[in-house]
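Feature request disguised as a bug report, sorry. It would help if multi-protein outputs had a clear separator. Right now it looks like this:
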Amino acid sequence: MCGFAHRVPLAKDPLPSHNNDACALQEDAERLAELSKALLATHKDVQALRSTTLEARERNSSLEAIRERLQASLRAAQDELAQAEAKQQDLARQLEAEQKGSQEVQTMA
């Protein structure tokens, strides 16, 4: 509340609304100070959010790089597994051929 509100203008006062104008200006100044504080707080919140967003982007980039390396390792492991399975099948065929050859030799004898 304005400090001038209790003053009653004098009959000779050339501008009776002057006190009301001063009161309104003071109230506006107080409201502006409140808004300024709120704006400053909002600005700080925005800065903190930007910082958090940048950190999250950096972590995301790091995680993305890790994911790509893991996928490359997985593909390499799958290739090695496929090669090992192919080699196992070849060895199984060779063993089977040797066993057949051995049986044929035994049958002849």
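(second protein starts here, but nothing in the output says so)
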Amino acid sequence: MSGNDDNNTELIKILEIQQSERNDDLLRNCLFCRDQFKGRNNLFDHLFKVHYFTVGKIDNIVYFEELISILREKLEKLVCIFCENKFKNRKVLHQHMKKKRHFKIHTKNEIYDKFYIKNYVKDNHNNEQMGFH
């Protein structure tokens, strides 16, 4: 198998995982409040509309459960998701994130690369065609 075939096989696998995640309708807790939501799209919609938190285009996310676990763990440890600074309590962390507009994932933080489909597409031309830029 050529390198291109390996890339295509991996991309197909990732897209299948992503599709199954899109169809899941499990109940999930918000990262910032006590509200619960059925399905990942409803959770992401709430995170953006109520808490102004964004992960980028929802359709580009894969390995959703792992991503949410990492984000939740950071917040539980009082670490800013964007800049990775640690704070003394949840209120101070929230104030920092709001003041600095850190309600997003830092695009330069490579720990999050595996959660975005575009990182599985090796050809920039294909990235553009698939709407990843």
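Even a blank line would do. Unrelated, but nice: The first strand starts at residue 27 and ends at 29.
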